[in-house]
Amino acid sequence: MTGAFYDGLAGSYDLLFPDWDASMARQASQLSKFIPPGARVLDCACGIGTQAIGLAQRGYSVVGTDLSLKATSRAVVEASARGVSLPAFAADMRALPFADDSFDVVLAADNALPHLLTADDVLAALREMRRVLRPGGRLILSTRDYDAIRRERPQSRPLSTPPSVGPGRVVWFQLWHWDGDQYELEMFQLHEAESWRVVVGKTRYWAITRHEITELAERAGFGYVEWLLHAYYQPLMLAPNG
């Protein structure tokens, strides 16, 4: 379900941003504060390259993986068009195809981890991220602020996000259908042509809290877990390997 959702978004995901290149540069600037110079970085939820390309443009050696083959294929093309190298291919973060101790930093940004719907799956992913990190390396991940969302979510109706208009007059909005501490997300794209064309994709998330992620990261063997609430556009978790 998740891979198919992002396959469907791969051709238009950049249109979520008023200026995708500016967003790449801004996010890379924020993330680079927590990534040592010269670090080898794995972005294990790279999508079409929003974080990975920006980091590559700042001189980091970045490898990208994602469940969506269409997204990673586009990431490679978009990176090349901007003069940087980004090896990227499809892989599941619960079974990363790399040797132990391969990276200085593992990144899982933009609410990727909550696509895993059970504690066992999240723990498996965190253990894999730690396995491919070198001793002293760092895990960086971001999620939506589910602590606040779970306090405020509607109990009997879907949550609707405000419509936004991207380049090419593509209108986006989401409906969230809650089921306990999980929700099904419907992503609506309205493309203006001679008549409006509507594209709908569905995926599912676990609204996992920061405390729940912290406990699982510690079980996976990470050291002191730190959450920064204002360093990035989503709450940002930093966890050292060892």
TrEMBL record:
Transmembrane segments: none annotated. InterPro entries: Methyltransf_25, SAM-dependent_MTases_sf. One of its GO terms (molecular function) is methyltransferase activity. CDD domains: AdoMet_MTases (cd02440). It comes from the Bacteria. PANTHER family: 2-METHOXY-6-POLYPRENYL-1,4-BENZOQUINOL METHYLASE, MITOCHONDRIAL, METHYLTRANSFERASE. The lineage of its organism: Bacteria, Bacillati, Actinomycetota, Actinomycetes, Pseudonocardiales. This is Methyltransferase domain-containing protein. It comes from Lentzea aerocolonigenes (Lechevalieria aerocolonigenes). Residues 41-137 form the Methyltransferase domain.
